[in-house]
Amino acid sequence: MILVTTEKIEGKEFEMLGLVKGSCIQTKNVGKDISQSFKTLVGGELKSYNEMMNESRAMATKRMVQEAEEMGADAIVAVRYASSAIMQGAAEVFAYGTAVKYK
């Protein structure tokens, strides 16, 4: 499955099948939340949250691709990501794009 952020794939003609999306909401355990809150006092990268967001993006992408495969898509164009805080220490990552089938 080809994923691109552009609206076209060079050298390919395709028909649009429709919107596909995937999302993931994750949180870290309370122990990680406490240790990361101490990190805000001294500064630096919040590695635990960084890992959480990377895992969430991967899961949201996987779910989007699964939806596209179920539609018989060959690729997804105009792929975008969005994220939002759900509550303290929890975030949603949302992936979306347009499923296409080559002609």
TrEMBL record:
<protein>
    <recommendedName>
        <fullName>UPF0145 protein ANASTE_01596</fullName>
    </recommendedName>
</protein>
<dbReference type="InterPro" id="IPR035439">
    <property type="entry name" value="UPF0145_dom_sf"/>
</dbReference>
<comment type="similarity">
    <text>Belongs to the UPF0145 family.</text>
</comment>
<dbReference type="Pfam" id="PF01906">
    <property type="entry name" value="YbjQ_1"/>
</dbReference>
<dbReference type="InterPro" id="IPR002765">
    <property type="entry name" value="UPF0145_YbjQ-like"/>
</dbReference>
